Amino acid sequence: MVLASAPDKNVFSAGPVPNALTIDVEDYYQVSGFESRVARNQWHLYPSRVKENTERLLVILRRRQVRATFFVLGWVGQNCPDLVRQIRDEGHEIGAHSFWHHRIYTQSPKAFREDLVRTVQLLGDLAGQPIRCYRAPSFSITRASWWALEILVQEGFRYDCSVFPIWHDRYGAPGAPLGIYRVETAAGPIWEFPPAVYRFLGIPVPCGGGGYFRLYPLWWSLWCLRAIRRQDRPFLFYLHPWELDPQQPRLPGPLVNRFRHYWNLSATARRLEVLLDEFPFAPVSQVMEQYLRQKGTEFPVVRISELSKPTGIATARAIKPAEGVKLR
Ligand SMILES: [Zn+2]
Predict the structure, then answer these.
(1) Residue 121 and residue 119: Cα distance in Å, rounded?
(2) The whole model's pTM is what?
């Protein structure tokens, strides 16, 4: 079904830039937190819930006429092709979330490219349009895997949403810019749109979705996101379909991973509706196109050589803008 009814509150030709809403379409047993207990060649043995959970999200978005970017796991696209077509038919953008959900820094560049090409071909055929947006499994583009950005450019990607500018045991690039920036690679530029992080009393606070959205009190998430908007920049929010599914089967795994995965699942749908009622959202490409039109050249530009420094952590201060481009 194509959303055709007017007016569409996601058509923003002027005025405030909407925020980016992103969904990582994967099943509950495919997450990195359980990968030590769930072998990839056993995925097909688990009862799948990704279709029903994604459809719950689609209903919530349809009711509010909100469109999003759905970063689909290639394996899910292969096994649920109609789900990808349904997402597309409802006017959402299709992005790529790898095929096998391997974290990038555990892969060789060659293996990453093979996984990427397979995913892009599959999703591109299903969506009937080129795939331009990427989200790495578990935000795994870090200082150990910056090379992935160059490969993304070579494979036709324009936007990446994988670099989380915080410290975390599984991901993160502390010191990377909090706002949108352009990364210059040897193959050309790519725009990086990081998940929402608000610097509170000097501390970067991740507030862009997922487990943080379920863990914090709702008022704190909203307060941080409002504070980002007051800085005159859009934020990027992310969720997974399994986060709206309190009934999903419980899997064994490390205690901390079980806590992160299962905490407060019953609150996600209601909280998402509160969020959608307060903030305007749109797919990544739409947000970026409008933001670029408004901002012109006033963007941080980061050279990959700066990000890749093997010693220490490149900070936003250490990253020099290109000539004629000023840091915010
Ligand atoms: Zn994922």
Answers:
(1) 6
(2) 0.90
CATH, residue 54: 3.20.20.370
Q: Does residue 4 fall inside a structural domain?
A: no
pLDDT tens-digit map of 269-326: 999 999 999 999 999 999 999 999 988 777 788 887 776 654 333 333 333 333 333 3
Write the pLDDT tens digit of every residue in 219-257: 999 999 999 999 989 999 999 999 999 999 998 888 889
CA of 24 to the centre of ligand 1 (A): 6
Burial (Cβ within 10 Å: 0-12, 13-18, ≥19) of residue 84: buried
Domain assignment present for residue 323? The answer is: no
Which amino acid is present at 192? E
Do the beta carbons of residue 21 and residue 66 sit within 8 Å? yes
* Ligand 1 centroid – CA 7 distance (Å): 33
Cα–ligand 1 centroid distance for 137 (angstroms): 4
> Does residue 80 contact residue 292 with C-beta atoms inside 8 Å?
no
